[in-house]
Specification:
The chain has 4 helices and 8 strands, in the order H-H-E-E-E-E-H-E-E-E-H-E. It is α+β, with helices and mostly antiparallel strands. The protein folds into 2 domains: about 40 residues; about 140 residues, Immunoglobulin-like (Sandwich), CATH 2.60.40. The protein starts with 5 loop residues before the first helix and ends with a strand. About 20% of the residues are buried.
Length: about 190
C-alpha cells in the first residue's frame, strides 16, 4: 500500500468493509435465518400453546382472519408435530382415508424439507414412519414391524400434515376425524 494515495487507501478500506458486511449479511440470511425461524416455530409461544413436542397438535382451520402465518391458505387444514430425537426415535402414524389430497412432510431444524408422503403415494394405505437420527455408535431401537425408517438430518425437526378442503364447514365431519388420525409419539 506504499504506492497508494491517501484517497485510494480510503476507498480500499471502504470496499473491504463493504465486502465484510455483505459476507456477514449473507451468512445471517442464508444460514442463521432458517434456523432461527424453525426454533421459533418448534419452541415459540404457539408451539407451547399447542403442546406439540413429540405429539400431534391440530390448529384451528385457517380463515380469512388468520394471521399467525403470512397469507394463510384457507383451502388447507393443518396438523403439526415438533419432534425431538435426542431421547430416541419418534413414531409417526396416520390413516387419513380421504378422497382429497393430503400430505405429510418432515422438515429438518434448518427448514430443509427431507421427506414427503401423500395420498397418491400411499394409495389408501396408512402411514407408519419410524423417524430416527443417526446414532453415533450405530445402535438404534428395533423398528416396529411395518414401519418405514426415515433418517432425519437433524435431532429436532417439524412435521406438517396438510389436508385439502374446498369447504371446511361442509366437509368438517369427514376431515377432522381423518386428520386426527395423525399420531406423533416417542418410540
Amino acid at each position: 500500500m506504499k504506492n497508494f494515495s491517501e484517497r485510494q487507501r480510503l476507498w480500499f478500506h471502504r470496499l473491504l468493509n463493504l465486502l465484510a458486511t455483505a459476507l456477514l449479511v449473507h451468512l445471517l440470511a442464508v444460514w442463521a435465518a432458517p434456523r432461527v425461524i424453525m426454533q421459533v416455530l418448534m419452541h415459540g409461544p404457539m408451539a407451547q400453546k399447542m403442546n406439540m413436542h413429540n405429539q400431534a397438535a391440530f390448529p384451528e382451520a385457517v380463515t380469512a382472519k388468520s394471521r399467525s402465518v403470512v397469507m394463510p391458505s384457507p383451502d388447507m387444514l393443518y396438523s403439526v408435530c415438533a419432534y425431538d430425537l435426542s431421547a430416541g426415535p419418534v413414531r409417526v402414524q396416520a390413516a387419513p382415508v380421504l378422497s382429497n389430497y393430503w400430505s405429510i412432510a418432515l422438515y429438518a431444524a434448518n427448514s430443509d424439507n427431507f421427506f414427503v408422503r401423500n395420498d397418491r403415494q400411499t394409495q389408501g394405505r396408512p402411514v407408519d414412519l419410524w423417524v430416527v437420527a443417526a446414532a453415533p455408535d450405530g445402535a438404534q431401537k428395533p423398528v416396529p414391524p411395518g414401519s418405514e425408517v426415515v433418517l432425519s438430518p437433524s435431532v429436532t425437526g417439524f412435521l406438517l400434515m396438510r389436508v385439502l378442503t374446498a369447504d371446511y364447514q361442509a366437509e368438517q365431519a369427514v376431515l377432522e376425524p381423518a386428520r386426527r388420525t395423525l399420531q406423533c409419539s416417542p418410540g
